[in-house]
TrEMBL record:
It comes from Aeromicrobium terrae. Pfam families: HTH_IclR, IclR_C. Signal peptide: none annotated. Residues 17-91 form the HTH iclR-type domain. Residues 80-252 form the IclR-ED domain. One of its GO terms (molecular function) is DNA-binding transcription factor activity. The lineage of its organism: Bacteria, Bacillati, Actinomycetota, Actinomycetes, Propionibacteriales. This is Helix-turn-helix domain-containing protein. Keywords: DNA-binding, Transcription, Transcription regulation. GO terms for biological process: negative regulation of DNA-templated transcription.
Length: 258
């Protein structure tokens, strides 16, 4: 056993935890001063035996976490890691840029505006700009939105992985599943979603795109009397315009511009 390497875990759960930990340790070796890595260098720095490190390298290459550098023995972070990093940076940037657009929109259309990011199982409310109006309709930051919400339909309409979107809507019972899928297709065509819930609250939602695809949605939320549900209303067009301008600043492309 190599110096620094612990005994093998005894249960499947412990093995899984160790595998995740070692994968993270290997990825943690990469830095601006270490953009590429060899098995020998990783073995030395982690204190594991060469066979173990080689096995992890092979598995991580197969899964896209690492990739070989041409025909050399060196590896570097793979597409899966770069995609995740790009996604994380995109989330940070949208949180910095969106508030100004949301405030401008809330002042213009006199209803609250809500930014949602995609979470593990659907949209999560991440920013709220409340309107200066005697009747205030708002949403709590951190709220997990349902798959049949206006914001979720926008995400599902434009997620790059449409197989994943289909799997998610496949978990809905009928006839809700068919209705939701039909609404998603309508959102894909219109570029915006409109819903009125059982309490008479209207939600208009539109996508914001970064270079690698949809990164957020912005919704306008108000009562039916405050916010028309029509997709060609002044409020809907103002929302769409704000999302298009934010998309441009995020380096993304609005679908109809493709």
């Amino acid at each position: 056993m190599a110096e620094g390497e612990s005994e093998q875990p005894s249960t499947a759960r412990e093995q899984d935890i160790q595998a995740v930990s070692r994968t993270a340790q290997i990825l943690g070796l990469f830095a601006p001063e270490t953009p590429e890595l060899s098995v020998a260098e990783a073995t030395k720095r982690l204190g594991l035996n060469r066979t173990t490190v080689h096995r992890y390298f092979s598995s991580m290459i197969s899964s896209g976490l690492l990739e070989r550098v041409d025909d050399s023995p060196l590896v570097r972070p793979g597409r899966a890691v770069l995609q995740l990093g790009s996604f994380a940076l995109g989330q940070q940037r949208i949180m910095q840029l969106a508030p100004a657009y949301m405030r401008e929109l809330a002042l213009d259309i006199k209803v609250s505006t809500v930014l949602s990011l995609w979470g593990i199982s659907g949209p999560v409310v991440s920013l709220v700009e409340e309107a200066d109006h005697p009747t205030l309709v708002t949403v709590r930051v951190g709220s997990q939105l349902a798959l049949n919400s206006s914001q979720a339909k926008v995400f599902l309409a434009f997620l790059p992985d449409q197989f994943h979107a289909d799997r998610m809507t496949g978990s809905l019972p009928e006839p809700q599943r068919t209705e939701t899928r039909n609404r998603i297709q309508a959102v894909r065509e219109a570029g915006i979603s409109s819903d009125v819930n059982h309490r008479g609250i209207c939600i208009l939602a539109a996508p914001v795109f970064a270079a690698n695809g949809i990164c957020a949605t912005i919704a306008a939320v108000g009562t039916e009397r405050m916010l028309p549900a029509a997709l060609d209303s002044r409020e809907a067009l103002a929302l769409k315009d704000a999302c298009q301008r934010l998309t441009k600043e995020m380096g993304g492309t609005w679908p109809e511009d493709s």
